[in-house]
Amino acid sequence: MEHDLDCLTIAELEKLATQRMDRQTRDYYNEGADSGTTVRENESAYQKYRLRPRVLRNVSKVDSSVNVFGTRCSVPFGVAPAAMQKLAHEEGELATAHACQEKGVVMGLSSFSTTALEDVRAASGNTPNVLQLYLFEDREQSRKLIERAKKVGYSAVVLTVDTPLLGRRNLEIRNQFRLPGHLRAANFDLDNDGRGSRSSRSERSDTAFSKDHSAAAKSTAANYREGRRVLPTGPVTFHTHGPNPTLEWDECIPWLKAQASPMQVWVKGIMTAEDAALAVGHHVDGIIVSNHGGRQLDGTLATLDALPEIVAAVNHRIPVHIDGGIRHGTDIFKALALGADFCWIGRPMLWGLAYKGQAGVELCLRLLTDEFQLCMGLAGVARVADIGPQFLYRVKASEFLSRL
Questions:
Q1: What is the number of alpha carbons within 13 Å of residue 4 lying toward its C-beta?
Q2: Is the pTM of this model over 0.85?
Q3: What is the dihedral of CA 349, 210, 120, 145, to 10 degrees?
Q4: What confidence tens digit (pLDDT) does each residue in 340-378 have?
Q5: What would the pLDDT profile of 60-73 be if each residue is shown by its tens digit?
Q6: Would residue 292 show up in a list of annotated catalytic residues for this protein?
Q7: Is 49 annotated as a binding residue?
Q8: 103 is in an annotated binding site
Q9: What CATH code would you report for 10-403?
Q10: Per the residue annotation, which of 292, 316, 321, 328 is the catalytic one?
């Protein structure tokens, strides 16, 4: 295997990508909400654990593959849905899809992608795709996306549930973030069957993206405090249509399951045992422990810290996935040891995309795969199913190590 000697770690990939992105793109991808505490703690939480390896075990054949979304995939992690990837590279989501297909890795697609969901599915070959979904107040917009995803063979829809309002992202406000004129939210200016071309709706989208999103969020909240229910109007953008404070378990999950069948329905944004139990009770197919990459509620737990109580509440009844802060193959091992079934990688993929397009995403996936497989072997584990809490110590505040 030939190494990229300029980039041997995800940390180096971040530095290289930062040099290639303009300020608006860099801040959009890397920033968290408010003071950024949760962004930092998502990453630092993994340092609370140390590995406890076993020796004299046959690891001549390390098998890192897992079954996910009905398919055998090469590694227990996938590429998380991330919006507007053409900000990072001109090929955007297509480059990511080709990289995932090459490496046998699941790809999640954001509803607010800059490439149509049909084109991403076509580029993905036999590797699974899942569609990240918001349930808009204009439910027909969501229904159309679901039907299109179903038609072309997406394996699941993943409902994001941590955006009743939009988190305060100060750099987006300061930069007056807007989607450049040559880009578009591709899933919202196509005909219902996925064909079509750029429309007058998307030509107007730059204006919507340039609005102060905190002002939009305040306006939405005020509408509901005062008992008004005013549907968003104009072009569909995340800032104007993504937040939806009206959603409730008993209404939205049955509706989504009825619309999405036979695709799986997952919920992304679970951070407590109580909500994990509700997800199980509403018969979703799986959950993702996520705090939106620290971009929504600052000061919430790191996802790794929230994971154990959620795993206990679910008690093997449905799969539990996790995202946030993963920068090393050993991080993936630690998350699995704490009970996660699968991990999702967000920002590192975007850094790879900004660095070298498809080749950069492949580099990101290769680095994490190599590190994870090496960790398995050195820890004395030949199969992913054998990874468990017996392979971890937790570092206590006193700096002593404690068996789990």
A1: 19
A2: yes
A3: 130
A4: 999 999 999 999 999 999 999 999 999 999 999 999 999
A5: 999 999 999 999 99
A6: yes
A7: no
A8: no
A9: 3.20.20.70
A10: 292
